[in-house]
Specification:
Mean pLDDT: 91
Distance between the termini: 26 Å
Number of helices: 17
Order of helices and strands: HHEHHHHHHHEHHHEHHHEHH
Oligomer: single chain
Bound molecules: iron/sulfur cluster
Length: 369
């Protein structure tokens, strides 16, 4: 599937081949070592960086600018991203209008993105935020850069992990009343690395200032200092939305009460603040868990694992020395392999494309063709 879509384009075919080798190596190392979070993180960060390297030059080529003009919006020439979806649902259902300047059926328009997001939600649930979202890899990347945590989370108020749910409620109501995608207009940190309304007056300059401040603060500085995914764990309302709708996915992360000795090591390591003293006392992870696998990697008693909802933990085979069949049907094998497969296919276009653009940059000094 990775290669087939590029059969008529030899350069993309070659770049996809390189990416396929990269993904296969990561998959092998992940299953060989059991270090889910480490190899997932490499994949996820590569995806996000590849997205930025591909998206900005692509906009410059097709539209001539990265700062949206009134004309671009009137032409419905704005690619839709999944972050808008919660704001579009109620105005769409009540008034039958699409409150975002995009086309319904174009490649980067409403329906392709809606179906992609629905498929991702079924396959990954909230795991979208660790395996599928082309923005999340940026705060993941910065949270891994610093060798040591500069801001301790010992006194951290874990109730803040529910702030994204409050923000979700605010933007959904605000978007309905204003009939406008207000999160995109005012609050999205990723406008700083994708497209934004061209600053032409004080209002658009103010919006640009907010985007840049949020990006530098939540995606770069705080993840660097806290070694946690601050934007995704404490701000993004679409992550909160994903926590709720993601419950349709049958996989869960669960803690085995017979193995866990309440040492608390996982609390400090969870990048999305999803394990707290309170949840741990009940041998549970919070609804905000993004299925990244970090807690499983560091638990000294191997007490945390992926499981299928409704199936008792004991029923999941945990031995890695059983038959191949037993290993293949383990919930963690199924979830991780499915997530890598989905993420690999979804990311192929932008990562392979970014590889070609890097070569172009070396040859000509520009990312733009
Ligand atoms: S929290 Fe938001 S930005 Fe982060 S991975 Fe999830 S949807 Fe993407
Ligand atoms: S790291 Fe493992 S043993 Fe320690 S509290 Fe977490 S789940 Fe329990
Ligand atoms: S609870 Fe575990 S799997 Fe879930 S986000 Fe935290 S570290 Fe990752």
């Amino acid at each position: 599937m990775l290669l087939g879509g590029n059969a008529n384009n030899p350069r993309m075919l070659a770049a996809s081949g390189v990416y396929l080798i990269f993904l296969t190596t990561l998959t092998y190392l992940l299953f060989r070592t059991g270090r889910i979070a480490r190899y997932r993180s490499i994949f996820f960060s590569t995806f996000a960086i590849g997205f930025v390297i591909t998206f900005i030059p692509m906009m410059l080529e097709t539209r001539g600018n990265i700062g949206l003009t009134a004309q671009d919006m009137a032409n419905l020439d704005v690619p839709l991203c999944h972050l808008t979806i919660p704001m579009l649902l109620i105005p769409g259902a009540v008034y039958g209008v699409l409150i975002f300047p995009t086309r319904l059926f174009s490649e980067l328009g409403f329906f392709p993105m809606l179906f992609l997001w629905l498929g991702a939600t079924i396959v990954l649930g909230k795991g979208w935020c660790s395996w599928g979202c082309f923005y999340g890899g940026l705060d993941e990347f910065f949270s891994k850069l610093s060798p040591k945590r500069k801001i301790s989370s010992k006194k951290f108020n874990y109730t803040l992990r529910f702030f994204p749910f409050a923000l979700l409620l605010v933007i959904v109501i605000w978007a309905f009343l204003a009939l406008s995608p207000v999160y995109c207009t005012w609050l999205c940190p990723f406008k700083a690395v994708t497209e934004y309304v061209k600053p032409v007056d004080w209002l658009t300059w103010l919006q640009t200032g907010i985007f840049i401040t949020l990006f530098l603060g939540l995606v770069v500085a705080l993840p660097l200092l806290m070694k946690r995914r601050v934007q995704c764990g404490l701000f993004c309302p679409i992550g909160a939305f994903q926590s709720l709708v993601g419950l349709v996915n049958p996989y869960r992360v669960r803690i085995d009460r017979e193995k866990c000795n309440q040492c608390g090591a996982c609390i400090n390591q969870c990048p999305t603040f999803s394990i707290t003293k309170e949840t741990l006392a009940k041998y549970k992870v919070s609804i905000t868990c993004a299925r990244c696998g970090r807690c499983m990697e560091i638990c000294p008693r191997n007490a945390i694992q992926f499981s299928l909802v409704g199936v008792p933990l004991k029923a999941h085979a945990t031995s890695t020395s059983g038959s191949l069949f037993k290993e293949v049907i383990r919930a963690d094998t199924l979830f991780v392999f499915g997530a890598l497969l989905f993420g690999g296919i979804f990311s192929n276009g932008v990562v392979a494309g970014s590889l070609l653009r890097i070569i172009h940059l070396i040859q000509t000094g520009s990312f733009v063709y």
